[in-house]
Design brief:
The protein is of the alpha/beta class. The protein has helices at residues 4-14, 32-41, 57-63, 77-80, 99-103, 127-133, 145-158, 172-180; strands at 22-26, 46-51, 67-70, 85-90, 106-114, 136-139, 164-168, 187-191. The strands form 2 sheets. A 6-stranded parallel sheet has the order 3-2-1-4-5-6. Strand 5 (106-114), helix 6 and strand 6 form a beta-alpha-beta unit. Helix 1 (4-14) crosses helix 2 (32-41). The longest helix is centred in the C-terminal third of the chain and has 14 residues, at 145-158. The model has no long low-confidence stretch (mean pLDDT 93).
Length: 193
């Protein structure tokens, strides 16, 4: 929680997540599952989880998402959800990601925060749409000490825990392969036997 949790908590707090806000979390993995848990705990009006495939839908709903969108399997997702969210937190960063469509999820004056570390340059984007709608993009990598304390207090008060899978240390190589294939739900813990 001190790393992944803080990474998503910071923009949620700083961008004003809470009652009457609609939040989207892109990527339902180690970072994204915290995003859904925290947005729900902050009392957001609506929390929508986005991932590529339908295989994480049940988990997203158990985490507290009001809706789940599979961007690779639902052809009209961008149109259906256009201009519907106040805050979007992206925990993924891939040159192939539909960045412009993600920005299109924002309502006027909406805020997009990229917390996934880019491994390559971000895709090009149409800044004119952002100018006309007054939307903005920010980048975050962690949280301030005061926000970390606040996050930990909220997690204790609301009984928020990371979803983890404990695997034996001898399976470390398989764990890395499973992570690359998106099989983690949602953090692995390696244990000595």
């Amino acid at each position: 929680m001190l790393c992944a949790g803080a990474t998503v908590y910071e923009p949620l707090k700083e961008l004003g997540a809470g009652p009457k806000t609609r939040v989207g979390i892109i990527g339902l993995g180690g970072l994204g599952h915290f995003g859904v848990l925290f947005a729900k705990a902050m009392g957001c009006e609506r929390v929508v989880a986005f991932s590529r495939k339908m295989d994480k839908q049940a988990d997203a709903l158990k985490l507290g998402a009001d809706e789940y969108v599979a961007t690779a399997e639902q052809k009209d997702w961008a149109e259906v959800h256009a201009s519907s969210l106040d805050i979007v937190i992206s925990t993924v960063c891939d040159a192939r990601m539909p960045f412009q469509e993600y920005l299109g999820l924002l309502r006027p004056k909406g805020r997009f925060s990229q917390v996934g570390i880019p491994e390559a340059p971000l895709p090009p984007l149409d800044t004119m749409t952002m100018v006309l709608n007054g939307t903005s993009i920010s980048f975050n990598d962690s949280a301030s000490p005061s926000n970390i304390r606040e996050m930990l207090q909220m997690a204790a008060d609301k009984k928020i825990k990371a979803w983890t899978q404990v695997r034996p240390m001898k399976e470390a190589n398989e764990v890395v392969a499973d992570m690359d294939q998106g099989k983690a739900r949602f953090r692995y813990v390696l244990a000595n036997e």
